[in-house]
Every structure is written in C-alpha cells, then in structure tokens.
Please model this.
Amino acid sequence: MPAGLRGLVRIADGAIEVEVLPAVGARLHRLRAFGHDLLRTPDDLRPHHDDPYFYGSYPMAPWCNRVAAGPTPVAGRVIDLPASFPDGTAIHGQVARRPWELGGDGVFRIAAGGDGWPWQYEVEQRIRIDGDRLQLDLRLTNRSADPMPGGVGFHPWFLRPLRVAIAAAAVHPSNIASEPRPAPVTGVFDRRRLEALPDGLDATWTHLDEPPVVLLWPEAGIGATMTVDTAQPDRFIVAAALPGTDAVAVEPQTHAPDGLRRLQQGEPGGLALLSPGATLELGVGLTFERTSQT
Model:
C-alpha cells in the first residue's frame, strides 16, 4: 500500500459514523448508520487510489461529471485537461484523487489549479454529524485575478439493495450526450416513486421538489432523506446504476452534464462563472431513521 494511504479520520456522533481518507480526495471511506455500512467500502484503502471513481463518496471540483479533454478556450483563458476516463473525457474534477489538508473539527482543504485548469482555486469540505444527521458542506473559491468557471458536487456510491426516489420534474436522459434543455420526466426517467434504480440508468434530474431524494435500504431497515442547498439557479441529481456493481451513485451537483459547454454556449445548467475571490457553495444533508427492526 502506498505510504500516503494511511491515516483515516473518524467522525461520529450517536448512531452515525464516517471514516475520511484525506490522502485521496478527503473522501468518505465508510458511512455507517445504526451499525450498517451504507457506502461501497473496499476491504483495504488501495482501491481508492487505484480505481478512485467507484468507491466511497468523494467531493468533485472545480467541475462535476464530464467535460471535454484538450485545449478549450473559456473566459479568456485556455483549459487544457488530460483525459481521465476511458471515454476520452475529463471527469469529476481535479481534487478527488489528491491529498487534502486537515483543518480540524471535520474540515478538510486543498489548493489546486494553475495546470490544465489555468485558474488557482481552493476547496473546503466540512463534515458534521449531529445525532441522526450527516451534513456535508463544500466550498469552491476562485483565487485567481479574473473570473473562473466552477461547479461542485458529491459522488457517493450507496450499497444495494437500495430504493431511491428523486422528486424531479425534468431530466437530462444522458450524461454522455446531453441536449441543451432537460425534458419532462416520463417512463423510466420518472423516479418519483421509491423503488430500485434499473441497471444501465445514468442521467441527471433537475427542477427538484422537496425533499429532492429519499433513500431506503430495505434489508437493513434504514431510510434517509437528502437535502440539497445551493445559491445556484437550480440543483441537479445524477443517478447511475451500472450493471454488475453492488452500489448505485446518487450525486447532488450544482450544474448539469457537460457544464463547460453549457457555459460557453449560454445553455441552462452550465458551470458558474466565479468572480475573483467569490465562493460557490453546496450543502448536502442526510437524515437517517430506522424503518424496521433487523
């Protein structure tokens, strides 16, 4: 195991516990509620390093989902990101694989940028547990002298069997080739009922009601309600159920798929354009409850 993978940070209160791995994206290695593991947690820490996109829960910044790799002129500068996924795109930002610093009291920070992403920026993640509630707060701050595109999100892999309800009126049916505007939810994309996500589903929901997401682990007898708070004009939930995996992703984000293209072309749901010193925030809460005795 690489030496840098040592050093989990445990945060717990009552029935809720998380273990954070600062060395690889300040990600949640484990989330446990009422004695049950709810994330896809590897047996050791190495998979977080070797296959970082498919375990635990990690913050995404300064963008989420996929953007084009290679030279792209945006906001007076040229972004030149390497491909980081087999489909040839740059995926899930720059900070999910890098070491973060501990700030104390559940706070983790990283300074990044100035490479393929030509702006300098800082990201802060704050993790709090209060009784039956886990609160994750993410802040992206532009530390450059001119405006910077930005987006943030969380990427948890929740263990199956799991039922999910997404209170959304509109959807981008594809995260790979999204249209400029979302479509009304119909058929398989109407996820307003609490049920299992079908294999192969990989889309982004928007025009959210409250609560935006409800989760149920029927075998564990545990339910959770997700809240999503941001000052952005809209909120987005990506959900992906990949065939052959024992978990599904339910990802709150501040922008729609292909957020860089959307910003360039003036489409809705694009990356925010942050003024020098400005901060983009996302707060995600999970309130857990027992639904039955197991």
